[in-house]
Amino acid sequence: MEQNMGDRYRDFLKDSVRRTVDFRQTDQSRGIPAPPLQKPFGAKATTIDLVPFRKWETIREVNLVDAIRRRRSRRTFQNVPLTLEELSFLLWATQGLSVKLDEGHALRTVPSAGCRHAFETYLCVLNVEGLHKGVYRYLPLGHELLHEFSEDRLAEKTVTAVFGQPYPGEAAVTFVWTAIPYRMEWRYGPASYKVIALDAGHVCQNLYLACEALGAGTCAIAAYDQEAMDRLLRIDGKDEFTVYLAPVGKV
Q1: What whole-number distance in Å separates Cα of residue 7 and Cα of residue 25?
Q2: In a 3-state reduction of DSSP, which class is residue 135?
C-alpha cells in the first residue's frame, strides 16, 4: 500500500538523522575545532556601535501573553523611521549573545541545535535614524553593525528578489538571514539541513514578538529568488546562502 504523506514525512525525518548520519564521522568527532561564531571581516571595515540593553530608554515592556495574542503578519507599514535603539533591540532579540562559552559556541537569545547558530543577519536598511541606506550585517560578538556596502535602487532590487512582493520596499529595514551550513555540518553532518530550517523559525518568531514592544510589525518571507537574493547580498550561494527574510516597519 502506498504511504500517506504523514508516513513519508515521518520516514524522512527518521532517515535524515538515524540512517544518514554517522556521528563518529563528523568533524566534531574528529577533533577539528568548531568554526567561528561570526563571519570574519576586514580590519578596515566600518563598524557602528549599537545600543546595549542596559542603556535602552524607549523600549517598553510588553506582557508576553499580550505579545503572543497580538502577533500577526504585518504587510503595511507607516513611513516612519526606526531608531538605532529600536534596531539594536530587534537584533539582540533575534541573535544577541547571552554568554560566550568558547570560540565556537555561545548561548544566544534564541535556541539552536547543538548550540551551533548557523545564521548571519543582514539588514537592507531604508529608513533607520542615523544610518545611510545600504546593506549591513550584525556582529553579535560586539553588538555592532558592519556596513557591508551601499546599493543603488536597494528597495527596488529587494522587491524584485522576492518576486514582486511590495512590503520589503516599504519597510524601514528588511532582516535577511543567511546560513553558513558548515557551522551546523561540523556537528550534524548531512542532517544539518533539517535543523537549520527549524532554527530559522526560532529566530523569526522572536522578531515577531519583539516588534510588539516597538509598535512595529513584520511578515516572514520564504518565497524569494535564491540566486537574486544571494547576488544582492554579495554572497556565494554555496558556503553561505539566504534562508529567510522579514521586513520590519512601524504599524
Answers
A1: 29
A2: strand
Q: Compute the distance between CA of residue 173 and CA of residue 138 in angstroms, rounded to an integer.
A: 13
Long-range contacts made by residues 193-196, C-beta under 8 angstroms, separation at least 24? 193/16, 194/13, 194/16, 194/17, 195/113, 195/114, 195/116, 196/118, 196/243
CA 222 to chain centre: 12
Q: Residue 82's Cα: distance from chain center in Å?
A: 18
Contacts of residue 212, defined as CB under 8 A and 6 or more positions apart, other chains included, come to: 62, 66, 67, 70, 71
CA 64 to chain centre: 22
Identity (one letter) of the amino acid at 149? F
Per-residue model confidence (pLDDT) at position 197: 93
Residue-level pLDDT at 16: 52
- Is it true that domain 5-250 has CATH number 3.40.50.1010? no
Residue ranges of the chain whose pLDDT lies below 70: 1-23
